[in-house]
DNA sequence: TCATTGATTGACCGACCGGTCAATTCGAGT
DNA sequence: ACTCGAATTGACCGGTCGGTCAATCAATGA
């Protein structure tokens, strides 16, 4: 009986909701200020629970930090993996669409970019493991396109993926600052220019005559 | 008299040396762990002086942080500015050489990359102001090259500079991690591949026939 | 209905935080 | 030789830190 446990709000106990509220508060604060600059008392206040309750659910401050990273990363990871495995036939627009989707994802999840940057700075290994798999997946698709003659073959596929990841993520990492940069455009204008250069530079036979070569 | 004040080492007082020792310790620790995670006691121990002495020379922890950033950034800024203002005739290798020099600078000063990343995350304005000037300087040179017909003219010069800055700095920002990335190459191999794609993508007339255009 | 279990609370702990201050110690000008 | 100011020290401050603990409180199964 009492199947309708969902009817109560805030009046009764709901450990799952509590957990997720703490997680959300942790996500917001850690993304904003970084792990070291956030206090347990701050986390408690933001999530509307007691400090002890956070310890009850997550053990230590590091425990909560790990849970926050885990949750954010698994969301990111699943989304990206689905997109990468979605298409199967290599066509000339596959890379273009992949870049655009990646750019859009970061655009809609700027907090994730900040979180990953904090993780990178503290040499978090979780980050690198999952990243490695995604990059490998993307690199495989680039190699397929190269073998199909759709992309120039004289560049390392992993580097191709790395370059576009860098160009996208760094854009959002420093975006709060470059609004004062002289002549800089909007997200979309940047993406458009990047795509022009990147795609043309990757076209087969792009090693044109004006290169002084080696 | 007593002109040879340099003969004494550690025996006598040397406020300048003390200052620079504290600055160095601050640089190392802040780069490594970020501002919030470093304690005054840690800084004192690392620099071999008393905690009170740090307060005497720099006022507060923030004061030292500012001094560290100031010192690092002015070194970076002067170096980059010299290079950008050095050459004056726009030639086809100007951008290529500029990118390479920027890449080499980051390669030799990986700590600076970390420092700037910490600054970005805490929305430090010092960063953006000086960055803005450097980017504007670089963008001007790109525009000159465009007007001379050496680079494609249908892309925003500021975006061109932004893209290569991102591709270089993000590479070193995440470098500790991507050693496990499948198939990734060395610094130089990455730079080489990036230059291929970037320079060919920027060549005039790069908007080739295979683009489905718009 | 009642015992059990886990959610939740507030009081409390020792450690450490950044910062201050009065007291010393040196170096340099006179 | 004396003085004055800066460099340097260690003791000390109030406050905050992350974490613990015993005690309540509410749901749940027997």
UniProtKB/TrEMBL annotation, chains A, B:
Single GO MF annotation: DNA-binding transcription factor activity
PROSITE patterns assigned: HTH_TETR_2
Keywords: DNA-binding, Transcription, Transcription regulation
DNA-binding region per UniProt: 39-58
Source domain of life: Bacteria
InterPro entries in the cross-refs: Homeodomain-like_sf, HTH-type_TetR-like_transc_reg, HTH_TetR, Sco4008_C, Tet_transcr_reg_TetR-rel_C_sf
Domain HTH tetR-type, residue spans: 16-76
PANTHER family in UniProt: HTH-TYPE TRANSCRIPTIONAL REGULATOR BETI, HTH-TYPE TRANSCRIPTIONAL REGULATOR RUTR
Official protein name in the record: TetR/AcrR family transcriptional regulator
Species the sequence originates in: Wenzhouxiangella sediminis
């Amino acid at each position: 009986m009492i199947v309708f446990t969902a009817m109560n709000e805030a009046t009764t106990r709901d450990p799952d909701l509590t957990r997720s509220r703490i997680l959300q508060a942790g996500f917001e604060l850690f993304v904003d200020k970084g792990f070291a600059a956030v206090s347990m008392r701050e986390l408690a206040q933001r999530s509307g629970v007691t400090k002890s309750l956070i310890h009850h659910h997550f053990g230590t401050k590091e425990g909560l930090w790990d849970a926050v990273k885990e949750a954010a990363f698994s969301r990111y990871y699943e989304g990206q993996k689905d997109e990468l495995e979605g298409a199967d036939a290599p066509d000339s627009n596959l890379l273009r669409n992949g870049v655009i989707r990646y750019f859009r994802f970061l655009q809609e999840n700027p907090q994730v970019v900040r979180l990953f940057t904090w993780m990178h700075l503290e040499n978090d290994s979780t980050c690198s493991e999952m990243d490695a798999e995604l990059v490998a997946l993307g690199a495989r698709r680039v190699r397929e396109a190269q073998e199909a003659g759709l992309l120039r073959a004289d560049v390392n596929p992993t580097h191709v993926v790395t370059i576009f990841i860098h160009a996208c993520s760094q854009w959002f990492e420093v975006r709060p600052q470059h609004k004062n940069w002289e002549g800089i455009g909007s997200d979309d204008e940047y993406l458009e220019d990047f795509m022009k250069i990147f795609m043309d530079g990757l076209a087969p036979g792009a090693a044109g005559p004006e290169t002084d070569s080696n």
